[in-house]
Amino acid sequence: MVRLVPLVDQHAALLGPILGDAEALRFTRLPEPPPAGFAQEWIARYVQSRTDGSAEGFAIVDAADGAFLGVALAPVIDREGREVELGYIVAPDARGRGVATDALRQLTAWAFDTLGALRITLIIDAENAPSRRVAERCGYVHEGTLRSSHLKQGIRIDAELWSRLPGDPGR
After folding, report:
1. Where are the domains of the chain?
2. Burial of residue 22, with CB atoms counted within 10 A of its CB: 0-12 exposed, 13-18 middle, 19 or more buried
3. Burial 144-160 (b: 16+ CB within 10 A, else e)
4. pLDDT one-digit tens code per residue, 59-114
5. CB of 126 closer than 8 Å to CB of 158
6. What are phi and psi of 34, to 5 degrees?
């Protein structure tokens, strides 16, 4: 259904629908509104972090035609502690088709198999029901809610912490 390919500079031009989407801006750490040049700087950070292994970013593309569908991210990689935080953002026109679930399954397998992760976490806005369903379908366990957690720009939200361990069902 989808493939994950490393984010590169050329993907910045494809982020417009995500950066202009009210839901993506509300439920993610993307700045609201995104400043000029944000897409290029954001991807450059992932390209740079790839070299030191502290983060990784992938474009989610359609396996059949290569169309850009979103991003699958590892914004925090703790190699010493073997812990990884993952995230995903699907373009508005690709939602509701299983893209996020397929991408998160692949990203989770990558974190376990390539990084040797012993713990993977997702931080999901408590009001983001679709993202919670994706986490559940991918075998993540809801650990609890971080009440009034500061996410961005002075906005405080409740954020849920979800996790996967190598021995969890579905592995």
Report:
1. 2-164
2. exposed
3. eeeeeeebeeeeebebb
4. 999 999 999 999 999 999 999 999 999 999 999 999 999 999 999 999 999 999 99
5. yes
6. -65, 130
Written as six digits, the tokens of 16 are 């417009």
Question: Is the preceding omega at residue 33 within 30 degrees of 0, hence cis?
Answer: yes
Closest to 70 measured CA to CA, from 37, 106, 35, 41 = 106
Task: Give the per-residue pLDDT at 151.
Answer: 72
In this prediction, residue 108 carries a pLDDT of 98
> What are the tokens at 101?
């679930």
Rounded alpha-carbon distances, angstroms, from residue 154 to 31, 137, 149? 11, 31, 10
Residue range 2-164 forms a domain whose CATH class is alpha beta
The model's confidence at residue 171, banded by pLDDT at 50, 70 and 90, is low
Residue-wise pLDDT tens digits, 22-68: 999 999 999 999 999 999 999 999 999 999 999 999 999 999 999 99
